[in-house]
Amino acid sequence: MKHESVPIYWRNIPHYYRLVAKRCKKCGAVYFPPVIKCRCGSKELEDFELPHEGKLVEFTVLYQVGTDFLKQKPLVIGLVELSNGVKVVGQIVDVQPEKLTQGAKVEAVFRRVMVDGKYGLVMYGYKFRPVDGV
Amino acid sequence: MRDVYIVGGALYPAGRHYGKNIDDMAAEVLDKALAEAKTDIEAVFIASSTAELANKQQILGAYVLESLGLDKIPVFRIEDGDGSGGAAIALAHHVLKSEEYNCVAVVGVDKPNDVLSNQQQDIYATTLDTYFERYFGITPLAYAALMAKVYLRKYEYRYEELAQWAVLMHKHGANNPYAYLRRQIKIEDAINSELVSEPLRLYDIGPLADGAAAAVLCNNKKDGPRILSASVSTNAIPFNLRQDYDTLYSAQEAAKKALEKAKVTPRDIATAEVHDSFSIFGILALESLGFVKRGGALAAIREGDLPINLSGGLKSRGNILGATGVYQLVEVAWQLIGREFKRVDGDYGLVHNMGGVDRVSTVVVVGV
Ligand SMILES: [Zn+2]
């Protein structure tokens, strides 16, 4: 693999596949990416699956990309506010960028992120797509 | 505690230096700075962001010293992405204040043009969270674009007003003999340049350049401009969970501390070099550092030629990644004494160097 070793990918699978965050048992704060200590001082954090629906707060169409993403160019990168108020940044897919608007309802989907050119290993993760389609 | 002075400095012209190795470029500027300082040094702090990734070199400091035949001196490598140089300066300053050493050198070097431009994108993206941002194809440029969009919308500016940043930087950079892109441009050049991550265009990006800079700092010689303070702050909030997208929190906090320690206000600053790796960051830095009010930076540029980034900034001088902060320090020092730049009217200068997208910032206050 060019940039991502297999162990790195495997240990992040719960986060990549199911949007698993960490929630503080004491104060309820939610962390995505996950952390090991809450800002309230507590280390009692539990796995917490984020809602899969939300709305698009802001987005950009990215034309200058790294080597792993050349075939997918351009990428639409969006800041999504999930239904519980937690924000996540991710790729917005299945869209015509020029028709995409702020505030669009989106849902998390499970997609291929990249394919390693050398060994053909496919890596997956969350992306978002407009619910009503554009 | 004794004061810290910049007793020697040297810059390598930013550009594409295919014929040089990274350690040799660093050694050349260090040798020049040492010749000017006329002193021995007791330690070297070397800042580089991409030596391993772009040039396949670790323990870089030892090879720099080898090039100069300098034996037995301790070397410390500092890496904070494109904020490495500022961090190295702050650390060197703290060590000299503690009087563990009397004279040290800070060297910044990076040589991104040893790899192809797509690989440069991969390398620069490692300044983001590699598991949750870079993995998905997100780059610093994409985040800069999102922040630019939020800013333009919130304060009701048009993109054409943001493009003024590039025009101003090129105007300043045209007078800098060490700048990478040393020519003036028209607003149309910026507006018509290639769209890279909307709303940002090619001219909103500080081009990555090869370069090296060195400064010799001493607490026992009162030659040259004085470092009044150097503060570093990190921002530990991930991009997706930020409170707002038009503040550089790391810059704001580092500036607050550095200005307090130096006992100066933003109004006392005659010249500042700020980290405009993307035009929007230059704008947000002006506001976060306290030079203009929130939302007022583009209006301030419209109304007058600000003494900001007289070097041309990262846009025109070039983004020399981990060396940038050391370039900025030497540039501000030289602007204050009128060396290789027009002398600024005032006694205080400020350096703002940032790593990644508001992850870490160093603010240094210099006085004469
Ligand atoms: Zn908590």
Automatic annotation (TrEMBL), chain A:
Q: Which Pfam families match?
A: OB_ChsH2_C (PF01796), zf-ChsH2 (PF12172)
Chain ranges of the ChsH2 rubredoxin-like zinc ribbon domain = 17-46
Domain of life where this protein originates: Archaea
What InterPro entries is this protein classified in?
A: ChsH2_C, ChsH2_Znr, NA-bd_OB-fold, Thioester_dehydratase-like
User: What residues does the ChsH2 C-terminal OB-fold domain cover?
Assistant: 49-111
UniProt-listed PANTHER family: BLR3430 PROTEIN
Q: What is this protein called?
A: DUF35 domain-containing protein
Look up and give the organism this protein is from. Pyrobaculum islandicum (strain DSM 4184 / JCM 9189 / GEO3)
UniProtKB/TrEMBL annotation, chain B:
Q: Which Gene3D superfamilies match?
A: 3.40.47.10
Tell me which CDD domains the record gives: SCP-x_thiolase
Keywords from the UniProt entry: Isoprene biosynthesis
User: Which superkingdom?
Assistant: Archaea
Single GO molecular-function term?
acyltransferase activity, transferring groups other than amino-acyl groups
Which SUPFAM superfamilies is this protein grouped with?
A: Thiolase-like (SSF53901)
The residue ranges of the Thiolase C-terminal domain are 247-366
Query: InterPro entries per the record?
Result: Thiolase, Thiolase-like, Thiolase_C_2, Thiolase_N
GO annotation terms (biological process): isoprenoid biosynthetic process
Q: Which Pfam families match?
A: Thiolase_C_1, Thiolase_N
Q: Which residues form the Thiolase N-terminal domain?
A: 4-220
The protein in question is named: Acetyl-CoA C-acyltransferase
Native species: Pyrobaculum islandicum (strain DSM 4184 / JCM 9189 / GEO3)
